[in-house]
Design brief:
two-stranded antiparallel sheet, Alpha-Beta Plaits, 139 residues
Length: 139
């Protein structure tokens, strides 16, 4: 399991908002289940550097640090309605509630389907795949 990059550093933005292209991101309520899904992903052959687990407090700290580095104009972008902004707000709300996040790079459809099923089977929800131009809600 990779300790770097931070979740907020994964191909971080599109239109000024978090956008980890090529990754599935899921919210897992129970940290033990999050650890279990990470172990399952690694056992299934996903490379260590492509699987990340981040507690909600770390996601919030990364987001705040990222926001502080942005210009005043860049800070306005997420205020405009967009799917990316809505998803980011949802994830920040989850992080504030202490949820854990699991991200896995899954460039191919088979990898995406397999990782999505593994995330769901371990209690993952709000699962999204960040494609080249779209965010796909996987549950």
């Amino acid at each position: 399991m990779s300790e770097t990059p931070n979740l907020a550093d994964l191909h971080p933005v599109m239109l000024g908002t978090f956008y980890p292209q090529g990754f599935l991101v899921a919210v897992v309520e129970d940290p033990a289940r999050a650890q279990a899904v990470v172990a399952s992903l690694l056992d299934a052959g996903f490379p260590t550097e492509d699987v990340m687990l981040r507690p909600g407090e770390q996601v919030l700290a990364n987001y705040r640090a990222y926001q502080e580095q942005r210009s005043p104009l860049e800070r306005l972008a997420p205020l405009f309605p967009s799917e990316e902004s809505d998803v980011m707000r949802e994830y920040l709300d989850e992080a504030e509630q202490g949820r854990t996040f699991v991200a896995v790079r899954a460039p191919g459809r088979d990898q995406r389907d397999r990782a999505g099923e593994m995330l769901r089977s371990h209690g993952g929800r709000a699962i999204r795949y960040y494609g080249e131009h779209t965010i796909t809600d996987l549950g």
